[in-house]
């Protein structure tokens, strides 16, 4: 297994600084979830007219693009919004081919009052279309997020789709913290589909059943070590990607602290798992 980081960790850094610091901290990959103030990176010159130069900078830093994290959703009851999601997947699929990235992340999406059985059918149809758009060699990975944080419903969708370029992105935090799933329970449901993993740690605040605060890896109580061991035992050899959401949670430690601390922590987890 290797380690990567999403660009959410460093919203105020330039691309050059991000690459420099990821390389210095020992990361293997970078996952683009926006850059600066622009979340749709395909609109930026760095990914259009200057794409060749950007690819060269990434390679020179010793990094690969591990994925592009989209805002598209696997389930949406609104046909127009589904169409917008398809268009976004198409944009990122083109970037994946340009930068040699294997994966596009999509969210699960909100049910919006739709019954789960119906939502599973619609989600499977949507995900099948996304897989067609992405094409061979680009995997559409659905994150355990939104109303699909529980792993069993997501597994039901993935079983219906059964496409080689569709899989699960196991956010190691959410099913445990938000749904009370044990690592083994989540792995039993989606382990065979897992093509990517997000890592973050937290601890409960005591203000509500699921109310939590994010902390540096190892300072919380999410059993991340157990999760990484399950992945290793199952033959997972992809990226463990730090999702340090400084972009959305400005109170979090800055990237100058979080990046090296998590790189060391994730390397230790991987070493202990193997």
Automatic annotation (TrEMBL):
Gene3D superfamilies: Divalent-metal-dependent TIM barrel enzymes. SUPFAM superfamilies: Xylose isomerase-like. InterPro entries: IolE/XylAMocC-like, Xyl_isomerase-like_sf, Xyl_isomerase-like_TIM-brl. Residues 20-266 form the Xylose isomerase-like TIM barrel domain. This is Xylose isomerase-like TIM barrel domain-containing protein. It comes from marine sediment metagenome.
């Amino acid at each position: 297994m290797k380690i990567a980081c999403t660009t959410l960790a460093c919203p105020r850094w330039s691309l050059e600084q991000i690459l420099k610091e990821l390389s210095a901290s020992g990361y293997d990959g970078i996952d683009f979830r926006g850059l600066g103030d622009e979340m749709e990176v395909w609109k930026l010159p760095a990914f259009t007219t200057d794409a060749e130069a950007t690819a060269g900078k990434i390679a020179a830093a010793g990094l690969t693009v591990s994925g592009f994290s989209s805002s598209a959703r696997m389930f949406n009851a609104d046909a127009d919004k589904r169409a917008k999601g398809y268009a976004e997947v198409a944009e990122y699929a083109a970037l994946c081919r340009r930068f040699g990235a294997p994966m596009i992340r999509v969210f699960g999406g909100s049910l919006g009052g739709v019954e789960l059985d119906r939502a599973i059918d619609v989600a499977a149809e949507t995900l099948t279309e996304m897989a067609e758009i992405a094409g061979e060699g680009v995997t559409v990975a659905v994150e355990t997020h939104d109303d699909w944080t529980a792993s069993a419903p997501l597994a039901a969708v993935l079983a219906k789709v059964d496409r080689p370029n569709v899989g699960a992105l196991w956010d190691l935090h959410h099913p445990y913290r938000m749904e009370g799933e044990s690592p083994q329970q989540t792995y039993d449901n989606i382990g065979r589909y897992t093509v990517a993993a997000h890592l973050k740690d937290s601890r409960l605040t005591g203000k509500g059943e699921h109310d939590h605060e994010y902390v540096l890896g190892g300072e919380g109580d999410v059993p991340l070590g157990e999760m990484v061991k399950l992945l290793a035992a199952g033959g997972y050899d992809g990226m463990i990607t730090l999702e340090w959401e400084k972009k959305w949670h400005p109170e979090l430690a800055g990237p100058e602290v979080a990046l090296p601390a998590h790189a060391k922590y994730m390397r230790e987890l991987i070493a202990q798992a193997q």
